[in-house]
Amino acid sequence: MAHQHQQKHEHQHSGLHSPISEKVLHALVHNHFGDHVVVKQFGLLQGGLFNTTYRIQLEHTPITDIILRLAPEHVQHLPNINSGESAQSDPLFSFERTMMAAEPVIYKHYCKAGIPAPEVLFCDDSGLHVPRTYMFMTFIPSVQLDHSSIGAVDKEQLYTQLGTYTAAMHRIEGSSFGWPQADGSIRGSKHWSEVLMAIAEETSRKAAQIGYMPGVGEEITAVFEQHKTLFDQIKQPVLVHNDLWAANVLVHGEPGKMSIAAVIDGDRSMFADREYEAILNTDSATFHTGYGCLLDPSPDGQARRLAYRLLSSYFNAYVHQHQVDQPEDGQIFEERTMALLLQWKQLGLR
């Protein structure tokens, strides 16, 4: 009966960020930590638009302060990167369906490279206990890098440290371009252009289904179709976080002695061109000091970075307008996309 209750409860929420019932939360805790464990208290954490996150205090177990994160609901059908299929009713992108299950693999890469990462206690994508991928992690006492309590001097030093960790991440090599999977494989292609085209095509298909930004998706897809050789100059895939900004960096310590506690939310990570990492566009001099590697100054390098910004902006426009219901941000990304598309056309590449 408990399983039926979970299913029923889950389907009462159609949004991506869907809470679970107290009964389901207790069942998940007892399933992984044992029936003797007591849930002392729990609370839904704010801020996430995609995953649903709880902080839970436990008794009668060695680890008493934990995080539970749940991905959006499972669907039966997963489109293939190269098939041209599209799950029309599925609000998520194909890579988003497997990304939480791959997170433990990504954090193992981080730890091996000396990058502080969250500790994953359990990750379950079986759908047996609740029709969603979910994970338990240890809670990290910390604040986010954009917290108002962090002084300017500390912030500069933390950005230098973040640059150093980002460089270490970009030295983690993959056997192909694309998305890490739970079994350690990579879903993608040996050709960087094909992975970029897959993102552009899937975004374009989803936008076309709802009549959003008509014709723009086709123009952006053509950028990657017509300039394959530009992108395929990149031969070595490396791990990029793909969502690296201040809110996904946890810091701790006293003023004057602060350090990065963990780089979090690595579930959107990809094996890609290192310059696909959007934080490399930052004007933070201290970040670049820590990163210690110049961006490709050639016309080809500049063109690739412009194309990456264009694709990212288009993807974010769709996501904010139609996936997470943030129309004001969606409008900003929509305008940015059109400006970047014009900038690309002005390059006059043949």
Plain-language structure description:
This protein has helices at 2-10, 22-33, 99-112, 152-169, 192-209, 216-226, 228-231, 285-291, 299-323, 327-347; strands at 38-44, 52-59, 65-73, 120-124, 132-138, 143-144, 177-180, 186-189, 238-240, 249-252, 259-263, 270-272. It has ten helices and twelve strands. The strands form four sheets. It has a five-stranded antiparallel beta sheet with strand order 1-2-3-5-4, sandwiched between helices. Strands 6-10-11 form a three-stranded antiparallel beta sheet, covered by helices on one side. It has a two-stranded antiparallel sheet with strand order 7-8. Helices cover 40% and strands 17% of the residues. The protein has a domain at 2-138: Phosphorylase Kinase, domain 1 (2-Layer Sandwich), CATH 3.30.200. The protein is an alpha+beta fold and 350 residues long. The radius of gyration is 21 Å and the shape is globular. Mean pLDDT is 90; it is low at 1-14 and 76-87.
